[in-house]
Specification:
Its EC number is 1.1.1.85. Catalyzes the oxidation of 3-carboxy-2-hydroxy-4-methylpentanoate (3-isopropylmalate) to 3-carboxy-4-methyl-2-oxopentanoate. The product decarboxylates to 4-methyl-2 oxopentanoate. InterPro entries: IsoCit/isopropylmalate_DH_CS (IPR019818), IsoPropMal-DH-like_dom (IPR024084), Isopropylmalate_DH (IPR004429). The longest helix is centred in the N-terminal third of the chain and has 17 residues. By secondary structure, the protein is α/β, with parallel strands linked by helices. The chain has 2 domains: 182 residues, Isopropylmalate Dehydrogenase; 165 residues, Isopropylmalate Dehydrogenase. The chain contains 12 helices and 14 strands. It is globular. The structure holds nicotinamide-adenine-dinucleotide (NAD), 3-isopropylmalic acid and manganese (II) ion. Nicotinamide-adenine-dinucleotide binds next to helix 4.
């Protein structure tokens, strides 16, 4: 298997390095895996002027899977939109057609006190957020900023288009129903159908699709209520399916239930399980270069890569068990630290996972 590694910006290179060490340890044990590194994001802009250079696109298209750190940072925030690191990320997701973004929010028992919610609210939490990743207001046309006549006179307006085609909703719905079927058989579809036509269609398609999945209990929730229910009683959820923007916001919220966003991995899959694997968090410019970032979300994303793109469940479970073990041993990066545990940096956390493997 050929893996294209895109370390990216900020903490990206630091956390990706630890995930690579874990994969290399498995290679030493016989896993057939090769790595090729390429530029994406801010460092790609600096080197080539393009956040997603053609050379990177070629490697990504030829690879069996992509492992990504994170992109972005204040240095590039004032560039024209097309040159921003985040645009590179959106382009690679779109070009590869990885429309199904799986973001599992699992609370490891040892982290019950690291969550900002009471342990009894979050203990045993195991939610899968299925976020549509290549459509919605993120990609909808037309969009822009231009001068228009408004009730306040002539001035600039900014606008975007929230749009989903039926088939686009159906294919992410199928992924979510299939996932629910393999888990707790409960699927909650999150929308804003009381206001937005785009998500009214979303709900209609989900209801229609549910006829093919009589064994899965489908429910619906408006996104504002879902945001509230996630912190009120998160264990009511099994699988949640939602659009690109609502999924972005709800998955960051769900991450805090697990202790830290540094714990939340993700897999972005196309129709054939070719995947792009990245932590759900960003490049964390505030802690970049300090060697303190939590690499576990990226290491767990590597485990998801073995599960979905390599079809190697045993290797995935081996990594996940190693992560459980280091948490049980008391190793904590700053984001999940609490008194009585051992505070470690990024590399020491990687060392501990390797030892546990
Ligand atoms: P962020 O996720 O980078 O950081 C939010 C907070 O969480 C920060 O305090 C950060 O220190 C902390 N944090 C994040 N990951 C952590 C980890 N592994 N260990 C410990 N703490 C961690 O979000 P932001 O600050 O809103 O965005 C920063 C930059 O990252 C922006 O340029 C944004 O566009 C980009 N971003 C990229 C991705 C991606 O590449 N997939 C995702 C989100 C944000
Ligand atoms: C994420 C990020 C990205 C998104 C940004 C950086 C484009 O927040 O992966 O969650 O909004 O999808
Ligand atoms: Mn996000």
């Amino acid at each position: 298997m050929k893996v294209c590694v895109l370390a990216g910006d900020g903490i990206g290179p630091e956390i990706t390095a630890e995930a690579l060490r874990v994969l290399e340890a498995l290679r030493a044990d016989g896993l057939k895996i090769e790595f090729e590194h390429a530029l994406l994001g801010g460092r790609a802009v600096d080197a080539t002027g393009d956040p997603y250079p053609e050379a990177t696109s070629k490697l990504a298209r030829e690879a069996d899977a992509i492992l990504l750190g994170a992109v972005g940072g204040p240095k590039w925030d004032t560039l024209p939109r097309e040159q921003r690191p985040e645009r590179g990320l959106l382009r690679i997701r779109s070009e590869l057609g990885v429309f199904a973004n799986l973001r599992p929010a699992i609370l490891y028992p040892e982290l019950a006190n690291a969550s900002s919610l009471k342990p009894e609210i979050v203990s045993g939490l195991d939610i899968l957020i299925v976020r549509e990743l290549t459509g919605d207001i993120y990609f909808g046309q037309p969009r822009g900023i231009e001068v228009r006549d408004t009730q306040w006179g002539e001035q600039r307006v900014g606008w975007n288009t929230m749009i989903y085609a039926e088939e686009e909703i159906r294919r992410i719905g199928r992924v979510a129903f299939e996932a629910a079927r393999k888990r707790g058989k409960k699927l909650c579809s999150v929308d804003k159908m009381n206001v937005l036509e785009c998500t009214q269609l979303w709900r209609e398609v989900m209801i229609d699709l549910s006829k093919d999945y009589p064994d899965v209990e489908l429910s619906h929730m408006l996104v504002d209520n879902a945001a509230m229910q996630l912190v009120k009683a998160p264990k009511q959820f099994d699988v949640v399916v939602t659009g690109n923007m609502f999924g972005d916001i709800l998955s960051d919220e769900a991450s805090m239930l697990t202790g830290s966003i540094g714990m939340l991995p993700s897999a972005s899959l196309d129709a054939n399980n070719k995947g792009l694997y990245e932590p759900s968090h960003g490049s964390a410019p505030d802690i970049a270069g300090q060697g303190v970032a939590n690499p576990l979300a990226t290491i767990l994303s590597a485990a998801m890569m073995l599960r979905y793109s390599f079809g190697n469940e045993a290797a995935a479970v081996r990594i996940e068990n190693a992560v459980r073990k280091v948490l049980a041993q008391g190793y904590r990066t700053g984001d999940i630290f609490e008194p009585g545990t051992t505070r470690v940096g990024t590399k020491q956390m990687g060392d501990a996972v390797l030892a546990a493997l």
